[in-house]
Write a structure and sequence with these properties.
- The protein is mainly α.
- The protein has helices at 5-13, 16-38, 45-53, 62-78, 83-122, 140-159.
- The radius of gyration is 20 Å and the shape is elongated.
C-alpha cells in the first residue's frame, strides 16, 4: 500500500538518520557562532542569526558535519558494503573536495578581483565597480573537525 504524503513526511521527521543530520548541521553552526562570538568577530544580533542559520565558512564546517553524519548513519544502518553507502561516501568526498578546493579558490579569486576592481575605480579607469561576493571555503582543519563532529553525532544518534 502506498503511503500518503503526510505519513511519509512524518516518517522522515522521526527518522534517526534525518534527525542526526539536521542536528549535526545545526550543532556545527552553533559551535561556529560561539567561536566567532568569543573571538570578537560578531557585531550584531543579525550576524548571530545569520551565523546560526546560513553563513558558510569557518570552524567547524557544517557541510562536512552533515555529509559525514549522513555517511556514518548509512554505514551503520545499511552496512559499508551497500550501494547506498557507496553513494553517500561519494557524495561526502565531492562535498569535501568542493569545500576545501573549489569554494576556497573561488573566494580567493573574488577577493583579488575585488582589489583590482576597486583599484581601477579609485584611479578613475572604470566608472563603477560592484564587489563580487567573497564566498569562503574551508581550510582542511575546518573540514576535518566538521567531519569528525558529524561522524560522532551520527554514531551517537544511532548507537546510543
Amino acid at each position: 500500500m502506498v503511503k500518503g504524503f503526510w505519513e511519509q513526511l512524518t516518517i522522515l521527521l522521526y527518522s534517526p538518520t534525518f534527525l542526526a543530520c539536521i542536528f549535526s548541521w545545526f550543532f556545527a553552526q552553533f559551535l561556529k557562532t560561539l567561536i566567532k562570538l568569543f573571538a570578537g568577530q560578531v557585531h550584531s544580533i543579525k550576524e548571530i542569526a545569520e551565523l546560526l542559520v546560513w553563513r558558510t565558512g569557518g570552524m567547524p564546517s557544517s557541510h562536512s558535519a552533515l555529509v559525514a553524519c549522513l555517511c556514518t548513519c548509512i554505514g551503520i544502518t545499511s552496512g559499508i558494503d551497500s550501494d547506498i553507502f557507496v553513494l553517500s561516501f561519494c557524495f561526502f568526498m565531492i562535498t569535501i573536495r568542493d569545500a576545501v578546493g573549489v569554494r576556497r579558490a573561488n573566494g580567493i579569486q573574488a577577493k583579488m578581483i575585488n582589489r583590482i576592481g576597486n583599484l581601477l575605480k579609485d584611479q578613475g579607469l572604470v566608472q563603477e565597480y560592484k564587489n563580487l561576493k567573497e564566498v569562503q571555503g574551508h581550510s582542511p582543519m575546518e573540514v576535518i573537525v566538521g567531519s569528525i563532529l558529524g561522524a560522532f553525532v551520527g554514531a551517537g544518534f544511532l548507537l546510543l
